[in-house]
Amino acid sequence: MEGQWWKGQLAADIHQALRYKELKLPCYKGQSPQLNLRRYFADLIAIVSNRFRLCPAARHLAVYLLDLFMDRYDISIQQLHMVALSCLLLASKFEEKEDSVPKLEQLNSLGCMSNMSLVLTKQNLLHMELLLLETFQWNLCLPTAAHFIDYYLSIAVHESDLHDGWPMVCLEKTKLYMAKYADYFLEVSLQDHAFLNYAPSLVAAACVASSRIILRLSPTWPVRLHRLTAYSWDFLLPCIERLLVAHDNDVKEANKQKGQHSSQPAHNTLFQTTSQPTQQHISHYIQAHQTPLPERKREKQKKRERGRKQRKRERKEKERGTRRGEEREKEEREREERKERKRRERKEKGKGERKEKQ
Domain Cyclin-like spans what residues (predicted)? Predict the structure, then answer.
C-alpha cells in the first residue's frame, strides 16, 4: 500500500475501502493441530521482520497468512519454518519495495535456520509461495490492524485532551508515547490468535484506546475517534480488556526479571510509568469520562442548563397563566349566567304582578 496514505486527500476513501475489504476476509476457525506452536512462529516472524526492518503491515500480513494456512492444513514443525518464512516473503513482496525484500541467502543465515539444520532452496520457496497464493486465490489484499492504526493515530492525540485532568504540557511528546504504545499493543495482538475474532479495524481502534488509558488521557474515547472509527466504547471494551491483561502480564514479567518490587516498568520495555491492574485501568476510564471538561465547555454546559431551566419555568408560567385565564373565563360566564337568571326572575315577577292587578 502507498506510503503514508492516511495523510493524503483520499485517506477517508482508502479507509472506507479497507473497511469494506475486511468484511470479506476469510473465516478463521482456530482449528489448527499445531495451534500450540502458533505463538512461537508468530514471534519468529516478528523477530525476522525486525531483523530486516520490514514495515508493520508486512509483519502483520505475514502472521495473518500463517494463521489462515495453519487453520487449513496439518503441517510438520520443520515445514512450518518454511511456511512462516514464505509467508513473510510474500507479505514483504506485497507491502515493501523490492530492495527491502529479504534475500534467500539472508534467510539461510538466520540463527533459527542453523539451529533446525534447515536450508531453504529457491525451488522449495517458489513451490511454497505458489501453494500459499493458490490457497488464498492469489489475493493478498487482506487488511490487518496495522493497515488501520496510522489513520487512527493521526487524530489519537489533540491539544484539547487532558492528562490526569490537566492540560497537556507537551503535545509532541504525548504523540510520541502514543505511537510507541500503539505499536506495542499491535505486537500484543499478534501473539494471541484470539484477536482474530475481532475485525482488524476494531483491534486497531482498541490499541489506540488502550494507549490513551495507559497515558491517562481523557476523555479516553473522545467523539472524534468514535466518529472516525465508527466504534463505540462499549463495542471496543472486550478487546481493550484483553490488551490490558496482556500489558499487565508484561509489566509483571519485566519487573520480575529486573528484581523490582515496585509497579513501575522498565522504560525501554513499556515506554511509560504506569502498570496498574486492569480493573484500575477500566476504573480510570470511568473517572476520565467524569473528569470536568475544559472551562469553555463547562460554560457551554452551564448555559445550556440555564436555558433549559428557563424554558421549563416559562412553560410552567404559561400553563399557570392558561389555567388562571380559564378560571377567570369560567367565573365570568358564571356571573353572566347569574345576572341572566336574575333578569329572567325579575321579568317573570313583573308579569305576575301585572296579571294580579288586572
Answer: 43-134, 151-245
